[in-house]
């Protein structure tokens, strides 16, 4: 008869052997589950690239050749040209930039208004915007050798630190009107300053202190 001790040792040895086989099978199955499959990759590589495999076993599909396969899902159509692509997108090459517009013509100089019942005649820009362009128009018509009037004066000439209105009248004088001023900004002020400096550097003939058309 077999003693209980020998029976226990025999069965324990047999149990350990079965456990070792089960663990080994489990390890091999896990490794196979996580290893990448190469069957699909090699099959698709041979299909689309004629068997040309790059380094690492990967196919280069950046520019595949056209391929007509019996399975439409595996066919590769030829790449369209850039013009064909634009047409398919409903677009077209951008048109050429239009030619720059011609500069706007300077505003017409208004005519002088008729004198009032008292015989006084205001300047041509009376009641209108009295900006730098309007002053330049009056300056162009100014004749320093002719008597100064509401129609003949230098709009850039100051008197007592002040500038004249659209009729050549200074603040504090009879019939002075606060003018309708133009837009003001630093850039505009700098451009007007440069314009006035150019005029002063090239004064009109006869523009000298005491001239008939000057205030000073």
Main attributes of the structure:
5 helices; 2 strands; 216 residues
Question: Short summary of the structure?
Answer:
35% of the residues lie in helices and 2% in strands. The protein has helices at residues 4-34, 39-49, 82-88, 132-141, 186-201, and strands spanning 129-130, 180-181. The radius of gyration is 49 Å and the shape is elongated.
What does this structure look like?
This protein is mainly alpha-helical and about 220 residues long. It has a two-stranded parallel ribbon. Strand 1, helix 4 and strand 2 form a beta-alpha-beta unit. The radius of gyration is 49 Å and the shape is elongated. About 5% of the residues have low confidence.
Based on secondary structure, the structural category is: mainly alpha
Helix content: 25-40%
Number of alpha- plus pi-helical segments: 5
Main sheet: strands, sense, barrel: 2 strands, parallel
Shape: elongated
Low-confidence stretches: 39-49
Total count of strands: 2
Strands of the biggest beta sheet: in what spatial order?
1-2
| Spatial extent as radius of gyration | 49 Å
Average pLDDT taken over every residue: 79
Strand content: under 5%
**Cα distance spanning the termini:** 149 Å
Task: Output the helix-strand order.
Answer: HHHEHEH
């Amino acid at each position: 008869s077999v003693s209980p001790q020998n029976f226990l040792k025999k069965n324990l040895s047999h149990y350990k052997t079965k456990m070792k086989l089960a663990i080994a099978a489990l390890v091999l199955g896990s490794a196979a589950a996580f290893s990448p499959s190469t069957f699909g990759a090699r099959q698709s590589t041979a299909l689309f690239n004629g068997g040309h495999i790059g380094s690492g076993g990967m196919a280069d599909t950046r520019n595949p050749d056209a391929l007509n396969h019996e399975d439409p899902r595996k066919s590769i159509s030829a790449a369209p040209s850039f013009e064909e692509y634009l047409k398919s997108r409903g677009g077209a090459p951008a048109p050429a930039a239009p030619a720059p517009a011609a500069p706007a013509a300077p505003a017409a100089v208004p005519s002088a208004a008729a004198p009032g019942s008292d015989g006084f005649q205001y300047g041509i820009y009376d009641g209108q915007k009295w900006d730098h362009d309007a002053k330049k128009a009056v300056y162009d018509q100014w004749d320093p050798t002719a008597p100064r009037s509401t129609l003949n004066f230098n709009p850039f000439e100051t008197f007592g630190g002040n500038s004249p209105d659209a009729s050549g009248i200074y603040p504090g004088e009879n019939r002075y009107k606060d003018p309708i001023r133009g837009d003001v900004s630093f850039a505009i002020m700098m451009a007007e300053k440069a314009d006035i400096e150019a005029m002063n550097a090239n004064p009109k003939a006869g523009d000298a202190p005491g001239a008939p058309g000057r205030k000073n």
